[in-house]
């Protein structure tokens, strides 16, 4: 399904109250009308450039943070469905709302068995699967799925469509007897891991969906695990890690998975074939491109994070966040002091096509820059 919008969520104050505002950006403005026009533009200018500054759309809706001094924490947001028209919000107590971008409606949803803090999420069909980055036992409900059940065909009784949470078994490494296993607190867990081994074997490095029902969780040094959403069982996909970082996106038009090669500033946009992997044969990168690596920026432009958002038809939106800073405040590894001023989102339209011999080619379209203001932001 072709995706119409990119969802940007900015944390800001509305009056004196902290809130998260949802802005829906049209990513197709980052594309030329035709591939030929994009090729002609790239031939005329090989250097990375931002074609124009764009105004951030007005907020479609605002979510106020709960004012609970005894239970502080940010509101979490998750994308639901292939079109990303559904946005799930969840506060630290587990209170859950569904915003439908198509109808601009808001719906109260059932609460999960346990609130989700630091976690990763993937949409599989109509369901949303959320796994804590530091999962506990099954009693902790650290892995849950929000499942949609349609209306019943039985006309003799009134049975409306329903959403419900299903608690699922955590990945096998949650029960591992390794001395570096979960110790209750994630930061303490990481500290013990690095003290003993120099690395955290079960920190999630990448995650994705394979086929119609497989959720893959790839760890840094502890292997890759597969959860079958049909049978509800975990298995080990292989004693290897995926060669990509973060959320990895599948492009059915190309039969390949796409993502970034690392979390570093110099990460590349890359393609990988997970369908060819086996327990004894790890997946390898098919192609990686430097053309959309982070652009050269002045010292006051500080890279923050990157997002990959599939649009359908072999097209992607590559979004990178930057802080515009001035001297006086420390940020990053450069050792220089900066004062944070504004945050910018740079969206780049990218198209991947196959040549006559099946060789992949990446075509960069336009880039647009959005000023988010002095706030943190994320994209869904």
TrEMBL record:
Protein name stated in the entry: Uncharacterized protein
Origin superkingdom: Eukaryota
PANTHER family, alphabetized: DUF295 DOMAIN-CONTAINING PROTEIN (PTHR33085:SF13), OS12G0113100 PROTEIN-RELATED (PTHR33085)
């Amino acid at each position: 399904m072709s995706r119409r919008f990119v969802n940007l969520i900015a944390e800001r104050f509305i009056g004196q109250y902290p809130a998260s505002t949802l802005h829906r950006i049209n990513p197709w403005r980052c594309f030329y009308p035709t591939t030929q026009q994009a090729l002609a533009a790239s031939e005329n200018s090989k250097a990375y450039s931002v074609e124009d500054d764009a105004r951030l759309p007005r907020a479609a809706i605002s979510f106020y943070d709960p004012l609970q001094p005894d239970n502080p924490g940010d509101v979490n947001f998750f994308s639901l469905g292939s079109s990303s028209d559904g946005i799930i919000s969840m506060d630290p107590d587990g209170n859950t709302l569904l915003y439908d971008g198509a109808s601009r409606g808001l719906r109260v949803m059932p609460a999960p068995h346990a609130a989700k803090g630091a976690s990763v999420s993937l949409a599989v069909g109509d369901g949303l699967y959320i796994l804590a980055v530091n999962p506990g036992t099954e009693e902790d409900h650290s892995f849950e799925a929000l499942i949609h059940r349609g209306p019943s065909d039985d006309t003799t009784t009134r049975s409306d469509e329903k959403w419900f949470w299903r608690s699922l078994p955590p990945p096998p490494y949650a029960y591992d007897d390794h001395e570096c296993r979960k110790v209750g607190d994630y930061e303490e867990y990481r500290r013990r891991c690095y003290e003993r081994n120099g690395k955290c074997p079960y920190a999630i490095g990448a995650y994705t969906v394979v086929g119609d029902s497989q959720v893959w969780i790839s760890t840094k040094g502890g292997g890759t695990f597969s959860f079958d959403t049909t049978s509800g069982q975990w298995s080990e996909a292989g004693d290897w890690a995926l060669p990509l970082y973060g959320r990895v996106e599948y492009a059915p038009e190309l039969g390949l998975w796409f993502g970034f090669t690392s979390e570093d500033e110099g990460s590349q946009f890359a393609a990988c074939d997970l369908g060819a992997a086996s327990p004894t044969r790890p997946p390898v990168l098919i192609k990686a491109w430097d053309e959309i690596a982070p652009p050269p920026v002045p010292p006051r432009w500080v890279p923050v994070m990157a997002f990959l958002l599939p649009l359908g038809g072999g097209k992607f939106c590559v979004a990178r966040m930057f802080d515009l800073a001035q001297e006086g405040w420390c940020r990053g590894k450069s050792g220089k002091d900066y004062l944070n001023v504004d945050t910018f989102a740079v969206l780049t339209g990218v198209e991947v096509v196959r040549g006559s011999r099946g060789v992949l080619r990446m075509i960069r379209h336009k880039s647009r820059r959005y000023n988010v203001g002095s706030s943190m932001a994320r994209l869904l």
